[in-house]
Model the fold of this input.
Amino acid sequence: MFGLFKKSLEVQDVPVQEKQDYSDVSAIAEYFKSETGVTFDEQVSILKNKVTTFCKQRDINSFNTLLALIKKEKQTKQELIDHLTTNETFFYREFKQIEELSVLVKKSTRHVEILCAPSATGEEPYSIAIALLEAGVPHGSFNIVGIDINSEAIKKAEEAVYREKSVRNLTPEIISKYFTHNGDKYSLNNSVKSLVRFKLTNLFDPSFKNIGKFDFVFSRNMLIYFDKETRLRAKTILENMRKSDENEVFFGHADLF
Ligand SMILES: C[S@@+](CC[C@H](N)C(=O)[O-])C[C@H]1O[C@@H](n2cnc3c(N)ncnc32)[C@H](O)[C@@H]1O
Done:
């Protein structure tokens, strides 16, 4: 009798395991879009797979639990942002626009400030720095700020150590002038690194505007991850980062409105 009683107590003590439920990712998708602008409306199954992997890696049993966590814990939310944003980029991507910028910067008689939003892992702002130096713009007459919402991308940008894939568009002359090549690594020299400052920021965060005003704004290949309404909202935010509306924001060719 006593044995039986003890057993039933033990069963009651076992914490109720939350049922595993990775079925409906829509609430996560909605929250992620409202926070970052990034939409998965056309890629629900890709999102579901990615979020399921994210949950399993952290022993999170359901999308509902994850949603509660990311609303509460900054760190988990940042990890999810790092997991779900695409940071594909490379040096001298869509170079024609960088050449156009060089012409404009060369004409300027003042110190020039350039915003690169988003910078991802740094290849774009560093490309701008290299191109300006190559065009004869003096060191010290310009500076560049790169921002991105992905903390791993910002960390890599600050390290500025790249692989072959990133530097594939650069000539051997540019590589030997601005990088130290060691094995499969290309480390950017300090002379270029010092021209760019990075900041982990969400474009839609109200604090974004506090980073200042800029003579030129680059924003390429980010709006493609937003829906039409969010793209227009981002366009206005980015245009307001300019010191004057004389110069258009440089958007990527795929960033159609
Ligand atoms: C494909 S990369 C583009 C990088 C570079 N501009 C280029 O064209 O090569 C897109 C970047 O946008 C960033 N991103 C997405 N939503 C953002 C937001 N709300 N605020 C800031 N960065 C964001 C991502 O983290 C990602 O690094």
Notes: DSSP finds twelve helices and eight strands in the chain. The pocket of S-adenosylmethionine is lined by residues 36-38, 85-89, 93, 118, 120, 124, 148-150, 153, 202-204, 220-222, 225, 252 (CB under 6 Å).
